[in-house]
From TrEMBL:
Pfam families: Phosphodiest. Gene3D superfamilies: Alkaline Phosphatase, subunit A (3.40.720.10). This is Alkaline phosphatase family protein. It comes from Nocardioides astragali. The keyword Signal applies. The keyword Signal applies. It comes from the Bacteria. Residues 1-23 form the signal peptide. Keywords: Signal.
């Protein structure tokens, strides 16, 4: 069920062209049995989708900390469909390129049809995703907007202002707050608004990884803190039985990391990530590869695009969300463009 919000986004002098809400600034009120079997498009079931990305969260950390230290993530997996062996974009394992893939359903390389975002900072040019690609690039935000729906973005890094500049009419609310806990407070408050798609970016593990190294004590503490934030979000969604029953939450990461960095896309700890879903239209406690024979667990392989049985990738967030909302795939997208990634067994 899609509802259109008419609210505008506050403009601040620091990022006036981005149209974002920064920390401490209140947001305005927001009015098969065989792999050879043909792929089947799954019926949509969600009224609303919330996508969460935990920046820099490695699979190694999730496995090391386990159920006792990451109770919310492990409860998330038990309550839904998941894998700890999904993949990032092949070309790069850095924040802004991979996140832009999540909302466009595209690879990175513009010459091969990708979105073209290859930088990872707040540079003023290229000013939009479209400028980077050299042509129009649609997103999950524009797809929901075209159907009369409402979207929102909550991010913990200022570089995400790129999205507001790229799709200014399609993102009804953008909040950027470097305080991850305050950012979650903003999202929880926004749950009272009728929205069809929200994107939440949490940055704690990536920040700690760069400062102290992946798998260091401060890094593992940041992963635990992120787990607690996810728990707050899930609790808030489920606080309203109707909202909880109609919401699907997707959770993934842009990259992992090893040692002091994560930029080498050929390193397993960098390109291996989690991909999870729970809520409406999701079976409980199932492995995504077990219920998706058209997709193949890649083991430790880095993998390429265009494989007959591809791995699950973080770039599938956009079209999976649209499938759940019973909307067409993002125009020009590649990842899960057939909308055949299922969250339920047959």
């Amino acid at each position: 069920m899609l509802r259109r919000s008419s609210a505008a986004v506050s403009l601040l002098s620091l990022l006036a062209s981005a149209g974002i809400v920064l920390a401490g600034t209140p947001a305005p009120a927001q009015l098969p049995s065989s792999v050879d079997e043909p792929r089947v498009v799954r019926a949509a079931e969600a009224d609303s989708v919330l996508a969460i990305s935990i920046d820099g969260m490695s699979v190694a950390a999730v496995r090391k900390l386990g159920r006792k230290q990451l109770p919310n993530l492990h409860r998330f997996m038990r309550a839904g469909a998941s894998t700890t062996n999904a993949r990032t974009a092949r070309e790069m394992t850095v924040t802004l390129p991979n996140h832009t893939g999540m909302v466009t359903g595209r690879r990175i390389d513009a010459a091969s049809g990708g979105h073209g975002v290859t930088w990872n900072d707040d540079r003023p040019t290229p000013s939009t995703v479209q400028a980077a690609a050299g042509h129009d690039v649609a997103s999950v935000f524009t797809a929901v907007d075209a159907a009369g729906g409402s979207t929102a973005l909550f991010a913990a890094k200022t570089k995400f202002s790129l999205w507001q500049r790229s799709w200014p009419d399609a993102i009804d609310r953008t909040t950027i707050d470097l305080d991850n806990s305050a950012l979650v407070d903003e999202l929880v408050a926004d749950l009272a608004q009728d929205r069809d798609f929200r994107f939440l970016h949490l940055a704690l593990p990536d920040t700690a990884g760069h400062a102290h190294g992946w798998m260091s004590r401060p890094y593992l503490r940041a992963v635990r803190q992120s787990d607690a934030l996810v728990g707050r979000v899930v609790k808030a969604v489920n606080a309203d039985p109707v909202r909880g029953a109609g919401t699907t939450i997707l959770l993934t990461s842009d990259h992992g990391g090893r040692g002091a960095a994560h930029k080498n896309p050929r390193v397993l700890d960098n390109y291996r990530i989690v991909f999870m879903a729970r809520g409406a239209a999701v079976d409980r406690g199932v492995d995504l590869y077990d219920i998706n024979p058209a997709y193949r667990d890649p083991g430790t392989s880095r993998t390429t695009y265009g494989m007959r049985r591809p791995p699950v990738r973080n770039g599938m967030v956009a079209n999976l969300a649209l499938d759940l909302l019973d909307l067409p795939a993002v125009e020009g997208s590649e990842l899960d463009a057939e909308m055949d990634l299922r969250l339920t067994a047959r």
